[in-house]
Amino acid sequence: MFKKIVFPMISGEVRLTAALFFLLAGLAVSTAVLAGELVDRVVAVVNDDVITLSELEEEAAPAFARIRAEAPPEEVDAAISKARLELLRSMIDHRLLLQRAAKRQIEVSDADLDAAIDRIMEQNNLTVEQFREQLATMGVSEEKYRTSLRDQILRSRLLSFEIRSKVVITNEQIEAYYREKYLQGNAEEGYHILQFGSGWAETGRSASKEEALKRAEQLREMVMAGENFNEIAKNYSDLPSGVDGGDIGTFKKNELADYMWQAIKDLHPGEVSPVIETPVGFQFFKLLSQSSDGVIAQAPLENVREEIRATLYDQELKKKFEYWVKELRENSYVKELL
């Protein structure tokens, strides 16, 4: 059994999530889909560049396969048409970003790429041979993988230049958010919890139970030393909640699994639980707030400052990115020809 691969944040320059790697697994489907005869044509013009039907169909093959497998037969054609159009627009945006990067003379050298791959292998405790076996298992060539990774790094560098450097979260914003969300007496009844999980084999990226435990304990130590729980969960958690920085929301006592209740019941807001073993691996939790019988206990501001900063930063970054892409499209020549 091969370990799953996670893409860590690389020296603050680029955050590469495991989603990138596993999306590439879809490339294996593409060859089969495109094996039949396909009359190629241009489906979009993006300034001086074009996107062809074969490129679109190759990119869309994994999504189309899922739709055919999961959608009711009578809805398949409509679902595929919708997915094709959405993906084309995503590809257009990606081309615009790459063109903008070229205009800004932002590049990713082979040395940059090699260093990024070395960090990915180190983070996942993989040798070069194991890494290549992972790619082969998913039917992705090393060249294709490097191209996709290069595009992701290039995109991240461009966004750092164009957007991230302009996003500033002030202490006043953090304090206002804290007053609104933590001090207004409108907290939802229950326990607001952050969650981190480390699994092995089918449930995580570690090769063994012992390795998963060691990994969970090391990452908990990082949180206890002041690292941002949200960022740790986003980059390293094996649970679905990692996408949301480990934030699973607010639960009443009777809604919590017994192992989770036992882990948090003695915590004060802002505290982190020990690592515990659960049916899906090893986990630890942070209690943000609790509300019972109208009495609200909140974590002190300093205990949640970085979580609030990360939340506000992500919100502002998303807003600025959407506006920036919209403006980029409006100032470019884009024609859809589906």
Shape: globular
Mean pLDDT: 84
CATH superfamily of the largest domain: Porin chaperone SurA, peptide-binding domain
* CATH topology-level fold name of the largest domain: Triger factor/SurA peptide-binding fold
CATH class of the largest domain, named Mainly Alpha
Radius of gyration in whole Å, from Cα? 23 Å
Strand residue content? 5-15%
Query: Total number of helical segments?
Result: 12
Which blocks of ≥5 consecutive residues have pLDDT under 50? 1-36
Tally the beta strands.
10
- Secondary-structure arrangement, i.e. CATH architecture of the largest domain: Orthogonal Bundle
**Total count of domains:** 2
Helical content stands at 40-55%
Summarize the biggest pleated sheet: 5 strands, antiparallel
Euclidean distance between termini CA atoms: 42 Å
Order of helices and strands: EEHHEEHHHHHHEHHEHEEEHE
Structural class based on helices, strands and sheet pairing: alpha+beta
